[in-house]
Design goal:
The protein is of the alpha+beta class. Helices cover about 25% and strands about 35% of the residues. The protein contains 4 helices and 7 strands, in the order βααββββββαα. The protein has helices spanning about 30-40, 45, 135-145, 150-165, and strands at about 15-25, 50-55, 70-75, 75-85, 95-100, 110-120, 125-135. α1 (about 30-40) crosses α4. The radius of gyration is 15 Å and the shape is globular.
Length: about 170
Amino acid sequence: MHEIAWPHDYLPGFTDNFASNEVIVAGLGAADVWPLLATAPLWPSYYANSANIRFHDGKGPELADGARFYFETFGFPVEAEVVEFAPPQDGQPGRVAWHGWAGAGDTRLDVHHAWLIEDLPGGRVRILTQETQKGKPAVDLARAKPNPMINGHQDWLEGLAAAALQRKGKR
């Protein structure tokens, strides 16, 4: 299976917080899942922890390399820029990642949030999302029990998979 490509400054283990979530779902392919993830304004339809998505510079509604966008999640107003965008094709997984930031000074939070959508044998799809974070809010999130990042991102994955299954008429 493939893995996330990390920028040097956001390598897991060297940041203040790291969250990794994954699901493998039968009956779906990367092509079924990708449009729901790549079209950011659809996120609130299957992930309640995202809101007020808007793009800057006349971009959108699909994510794309270099696209700047805004959304709210985990109580943070996040500005973000897509730093990796490759739809799934020819046996290669779909990849999307953004650098996101919120706050200033002691409240500054910087994240690298990456996704990998990969076809697996037997008509299955693997959806992996991982995020590294830096800053005092990241330290606080890492200490929280239960871990809000792990739980929130799991909700995102499960909602994404359920929405893709529903679109295919399988639920």
